[in-house]
Automatic annotation (TrEMBL):
<dbReference type="InterPro" id="IPR042171">
    <property type="entry name" value="Acyl-CoA_hotdog"/>
</dbReference>
<dbReference type="InterPro" id="IPR003703">
    <property type="entry name" value="Acyl_CoA_thio"/>
</dbReference>
<dbReference type="Pfam" id="PF02551">
    <property type="entry name" value="Acyl_CoA_thio"/>
</dbReference>
<dbReference type="GO" id="GO:0047617">
    <property type="term" value="F:fatty acyl-CoA hydrolase activity"/>
</dbReference>
<dbReference type="Pfam" id="PF13622">
    <property type="entry name" value="4HBT_3"/>
</dbReference>
<dbReference type="InterPro" id="IPR049449">
    <property type="entry name" value="TesB_ACOT8-like_N"/>
</dbReference>
<dbReference type="GO" id="GO:0009062">
    <property type="term" value="P:fatty acid catabolic process"/>
</dbReference>
<comment type="similarity">
    <text>Belongs to the C/M/P thioester hydrolase family.</text>
</comment>
<dbReference type="GO" id="GO:0006637">
    <property type="term" value="P:acyl-CoA metabolic process"/>
</dbReference>
<keyword id="KW-0378">Hydrolase</keyword>
<feature type="domain" description="Acyl-CoA thioesterase 2 C-terminal">
    <location>
        <begin position="179"/>
        <end position="291"/>
    </location>
</feature>
<comment type="subunit">
    <text>Homotetramer.</text>
</comment>
<feature type="domain" description="Acyl-CoA thioesterase-like N-terminal HotDog">
    <location>
        <begin position="43"/>
        <end position="121"/>
    </location>
</feature>
<dbReference type="InterPro" id="IPR025652">
    <property type="entry name" value="TesB_C"/>
</dbReference>
<keyword id="KW-0443">Lipid metabolism</keyword>
<dbReference type="InterPro" id="IPR029069">
    <property type="entry name" value="HotDog_dom_sf"/>
</dbReference>
<protein>
    <recommendedName>
        <fullName>Acyl-CoA thioesterase 2</fullName>
    </recommendedName>
</protein>
Amino acid sequence: MNAKPPTADPMETLLRILELSDAGGAQTDEDIFVGLGNANAPQPRLFGGQVLAQSLVAASRTVGSEHLMHSMHGYFLRPGDAASPITFGVERLRDGRSFSARRAHAYQGGAPILSMIASFQRPDQGIEHQDTMPEGIPAPETLPTSAQLLGAIDHPVAQAWAYERPFDIRHVGANIYFDVKGEKVAHQAVWLKTLGPMPTDQNLHRAALAYASDYTLLEPSLRRHGISWAMPGISVASLDHAMWWHRPLQVDDWLLYVAESPSASEARGLNLGRFFNRDGVLVATVAQEGMMRVPEGTLAD
């Protein structure tokens, strides 16, 4: 088939999603914001990374411009509806000299779909060390794009992943879209960046990275057991998400996303990820546990 152009520019969609309204100044004991869903999504369930990013943007609107998000811990409570707007309530838990803490809830239909606590910090000086970026990783320009891998597949999800994601995502080695080739290992790496330039706001870059972190983080658990995204009857959902931002980053420049799964049990898989820029600087770390159910009798060794 011929490639289908996206129904909307993916970068314009991303920036519009991250541009929350203040609900006309509405406020209870929380600061209230409203964000868009994503009516162009190929599936009715709202993408978890979008809700994470929007919640972080909402929380960042309540701190001073000099405060940068440095950590968040959240739980996905209910599936969201991609076609409906989301209301965000932010509680100002504490404002200290260096750190500010916020609790954010994302609501649809009057019920919370995400509960999150985030912490913000003024830039400071202190001790420094970091993990080392893996060696021998091919440059992103040498790897195939999602559009090249999925663009000819006549399926709405494949088309959306090929043309409607606002991020360029390139797997180092084999991907697991349709099958798992090679050794079944519990680790992988991908390069990613936004398709276009982002505004200069560092908190917006960090929120956008949280958005992208949810795309492939559960894949090491799946890869270890030979499970692809196309397996019939598979059911996968994010349960929680934790993220730490260590240093300034540019999500519109290439970042290497190295992920591994140290454990899977009781229909849950734990996955850890690290983000390095092209200079080998560790800019963020992420952790997530996901629910993973496969049809009985299909589990691989």
